[in-house]
Amino acid sequence: MIEVKNLTIRFGPDAPPAVDGVSFTVRTGEAFGLVGESGSGKSTVLRAMAGLNSKYSGEIRIDGVALPPDRPRSFFKRVQMVFQDPYGSLHPRQTIQTQLMEPLHNQSLERRPNAVEQALEAVGLPRSARYRYPHQLSGGQRQRVAIARALMLEPEILLLDEPTSALDVSVQAEVLNLLADLREQRKLTYVLVSHDLAVVAHMCDRLAVMRTGNIVDEFEAVQLRGGSVNHPYSRELLAASEAYGEAPRS
Amino acid sequence: MITDVSRQHLSLGAWLKADPPNGILHSMAQQAWRGCLRFSLHPLGMLGLAIILLVVFAALAAPWLTTYDPVTQNLLERLQPPSAEHWFGTDEFGRDIFARIVYGARTTLYIIMLVTIIVAPIGLLIGVCAGYLGGWADEVLMRVTDVFLSLPGLVLALGFAAALGPGITNAIIAIALTAWPPIARLARAEALSLKQADFIAAVRLQGASRWRIIFRHIVPMCLPSVIVRVTLSMAGVILTAAGLGFLGLGAQPPMPEWGAMVSTGREFMIDSPWVVIAPGISIAAVSLAFNLVGDALRDTLDPRGGE
Amino acid sequence: MSEGPLVTANNLRVAFGRGAHAIPIVHGISFTVGREKVAIVGESGAGKSTVGRAIMRLLPPAAHVTADRLMFREIDLLAASERQMMDLRGRHMGLIMQDPKYSLNPVVPVGEQIAESWRLHHHGRAARREAFDRTLAILEAVKIRDPGRVAKLYPHEISGGMGQRVMIAMMLISGPELLIADEPTSALDVTVRMEVLGLLDELIASRGLGLVFISHDLNLVRRFCDRVIIMYSGRIVETLAAVELDHAEHPYTRALLSSLPSIHDQKPRLPVMMRDPAWLSQSGITQ
Known about the structure:
The complex is a heterotrimer of chains A (about 250), B (about 300) and C (about 290). Chain A contains eight helices and ten strands. Chain A has a domain at about 90-155. Chain A has helices spanning about 40-50, 95-105, 115-120, 140-150, 170-185, 195-205, 220-225, 230-245, and strands at about 1-10, 20-25, 30-35, 55-60, 65, 80, 155-160, 190-195, 205-210, 215-220. Chain A is α/β, with parallel strands linked by helices and about 250 residues long. Chain B is flat, with a radius of gyration of 24 Å. The two termini of chain B are about 20 Å apart. Chains in contact: A-B, A-C.
């Protein structure tokens, strides 16, 4: 469904490429993980896919059709993004109601009176949250609002940039469960960026490993869970996650 | 427990504390109320606010607070020291100084309002557009800002006086036109950092137009620091207006204006100090009041919210 | 050799503000730290960072710290004067913070910052020369190659992992007995984390130090530390040896462990923690 071909992104004419000829495909309904450490370029790829950065070379295709770097408005009804920091992804001075209605306004869609209530219910937030400001909500609640906002336009594809890195362990579990449920209910396609192999192993079907702008390995999640990855860097990442982490499979 | 507050006749206090809020306006009112409460925790800020309110009251109730007319001359009574008759004494034309101070409050308020109306919107708009749009818009707007920044207020006022004739309004416009550049720079800096924020990216990902982003999302975030900055520069504006009064470019006689009163009173300062003390203290008090309020506002309006 | 624990805390309480409006952060906890690696684990708001800073008396004046006993070796930390605390900090107790981007002075070269840490406790002309030599020595001890070159660099010129090594160097140069590390690897990449933790492990073992390792990452501490203290909402809910974490008894600990996604065990749904208000009524238990 999504095809990224030879994506190259540079920040500045003489700078080395942050993303260097990256190619991968994501099947419809799949959850695809992009794993890497800081500086690997994974978030840069995601932002380019979202349409936040139009200065790239290479192609991004959806259903075989190449997307223009400056996305048309209709694109955002198909693809939406959830950001990492729950404290920065909501407008501090607008109520939840306003922020959830905003996508409908920007796409000139009908502002159904119960749209917000339905959205809050879909992400497990109480009705009392509707007229609150973001600072009155916890981190987990804010992230749910961010997910609700992303779903207002009923996209088919959700791009998730480290959606639970900033959350406590118990809250992370709730949000991951929510994301899994929503994906099943709405038949969504996910592209999930994370540095946490456990989250990716849990959420994704397939994943690609990035290092300094390149994809160095690509494999199914079952291989990760079984510990049978081949590329030396992938093995290094896995070992590091296990060294001070859960016991490796004996 | 969610109560249906719209159906009940709640006291204002209960409505402000009702949880959860049941409407956007309800929530905004509660936020504003919490802001006022936070402001009231600053004793100096409250003092500044009290002084400003006193000035507003004096301006509004001037005819009822004074027994003498501020412009009527009575040369028999000239340069009288403060007494039961004339609380602040009389000036060189025998005019009651107390009346001139109270009516002068109107002039001060006029200056403040006119400057705010000109400076805040212009500075905010130019700064935010320059910061968010970037590119050549940023270059052009910032060079325009630089031009106005390099013009000394006094010189521009002279130019205005020559072109349009002297008078308080023209002087104020002249001051305002040189006071907006720092506001624009401040707004630009804020817009530049907000541009990178995730919540702005989220709105871009909804297909919002640039103008919607600027006016609906960025400007409200810049308002607090602009308000604080304008408040803090108010002190300087009042003093500049006083300086213009000295050059004869501000308020024209016999209009009572505190700065003009100080400058004309300098001649008689040695023997009749009361002529400059009252207006001098008034200017200092109002300037200080704006500074105190500005400082307290800075703490209150922190956009990171948090109660 | 010292007998007895390095840190003893009995009924430690920390509250912000006083009187009726005081907000309690830590509700009377008790624990000891010897020459071992002890982890304090909890989610945000559990009070673990507060405990770490309370030991070094680095909390803001609004924080009100009380305890039946709060001792470092034989020194009463609550009764100590600020001068005594200043002597303790750095020389006997070191604090490693989370992000070298924020904990290192951006306008001073890193070598200078490390040397300053030495000179704070050793005065005089000779100390200056010695500080320079010791700085190079400690940079080598934290496995930084080419210490002479790195000492002249500014914090923004070095990577996160190197920045943490610099922090560790800064804290170790005066030879403390106790290290308090507040989320020292949370800002680091996974591979760098492994290196830094390996380094810490080696240094602590070779110098016989005690370590208080504050973290939110239970999986991280179970392999790295000897003992684990679990905190919830300002209280200690469980203390146990790291190897016995799988046999944890308290429901909060078990819930924390099971709600972590696992690389190898596929859980279709991550168990969601049901917070029991009864957890809040338990007082600190130590083994």
